[in-house]
């Protein structure tokens, strides 16, 4: 038997569609910052999203870290048409399915596993899988994805890491998240391979709980002006 005939067929992995890639580009280019939102009360999600949109921030990541997350995505998707609402903290294929059902436009994960990546791609939604370095990024690239979240950005090397990744992976565009703030966001946004950053600072817990939408609008307005 020749060496060639012994090879077993390569598994066919799902690969990202052009439509999903162009949607993720629209999500990343809408504004310099994607807010990472934790909602404890789904009823607050709509006024919160409207405040962010008024401030010029239209791609919104609502995390699945609270039981209210999925319902918040559903109501914002239905009631705030100016926003592109995505799901964050997507950890499993079951999460992917639940997010698709409630109308999420995009999916963000803090890291990757083969099963999660396959489910994200198979959903046909725009995706920003989380990577912390080259090995995870290569699994992402194997599935035809060239957009990723770098997480936790400030811990895994910050702007220096992104510059280093730009050598072997010049076509990848990142959304660094984790430790990004108004004081360092421009250090990231000035890099050619950074399309936007993510962060929780636009939606401080006390302001959300107090319903201080004017303050959140103002934080959004400042974030929208961050492009270097
Ligand atoms: C995330 O999940 O992306 C982070 O929790 C957001 O990080 P930050 O709170 O440092 O902005």
Topology (elements, then pairings):
Blueprint: H1 3-6, H2 18-29, E1 33-37, H3 45-54, E2 59-63, H4 69-79, E3 84-88, H5 93-101, E4 106-108, H6 114-122, E5 126-128, E6 130-131, H7 134-142, E7 147-150, H8 158-166, E8 173-176, H9 185-189, E9 197-199, H10 205-210, H11 213-224
Helix pairs in contact: 3-11
Protein name: 2-dehydro-3-deoxy-phosphogluconate aldolase
Family: Belongs to the KHG/KDPG aldolase family.
Pathway: Carbohydrate acid metabolism; 2-dehydro-3-deoxy-D-gluconate degradation; D-glyceraldehyde 3-phosphate and pyruvate from 2-dehydro-3-deoxy-D-gluconate: step 2/2
Characterization of this structure:
With 228 residues, the protein is an alpha/beta fold. It has a single domain, classed as TIM Barrel. 42% of the residues lie in helices and 15% in strands. The protein has eleven helices and nine strands. Strands 5-4-3-2-1-9 form a six-stranded parallel sheet. Strands 6-7-8 form a three-stranded parallel sheet. The radius of gyration is 18 Å and the shape is globular. The chain starts with a helix and ends with a helix. Bound molecules: 3-phosphoglyceric acid. The site of 3-phosphoglyceric acid has 10 residues, from β9.
Essential attributes:
9 strands; 42% helix; 6-stranded parallel β-sheet; single chain; disordered N terminus; 11 helices; 228 residues; 3-stranded parallel β-sheet; binds 3-phosphoglyceric acid; TIM Barrel
């Amino acid at each position: 038997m020749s060496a060639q005939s012994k090879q077993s067929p390569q598994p066919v992995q799902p690969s990202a569609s052009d439509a999903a890639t162009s949607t993720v580009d629209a999500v990343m280019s809408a504004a310099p910052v994607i807010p990472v939102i934790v909602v404890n009360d789904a009823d607050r999600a709509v006024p919160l999203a409207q405040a962010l949109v008024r401030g010029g921030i239209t791609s919104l990541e609502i995390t699945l870290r609270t039981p209210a997350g999925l319902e918040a995505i559903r109501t914002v998707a239905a009631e705030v048409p100016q926003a592109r609402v995505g799901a964050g903290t997507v950890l499993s294929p079951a999460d992917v399915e639940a997010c698709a059902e409630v109308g999420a436009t995009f999916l963000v994960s803090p890291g990757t596993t083969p099963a999660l990546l396959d489910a994200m791609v198979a959903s046909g939604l725009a995706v920003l899988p989380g990577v912390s370095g080259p090995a995870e990024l290569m699994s992402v690239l194997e599935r035809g994805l060239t957009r990723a979240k770098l997480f936790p950005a400030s811990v895994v090397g910050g702007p220096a890491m992104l510059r280093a990744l730009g050598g072997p992976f010049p076509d990848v565009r990142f959304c660094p998240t984790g430790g990004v703030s108004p004081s360092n966001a421009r250090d990231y946004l000035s890099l050619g391979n950074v399309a936007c950053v993510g962060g929780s600072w636009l939606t401080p817990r006390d302001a959300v709980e107090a319903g201080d939408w004017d303050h959140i609008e103002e934080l959004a307005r400042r974030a929208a002006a961050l492009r270097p």
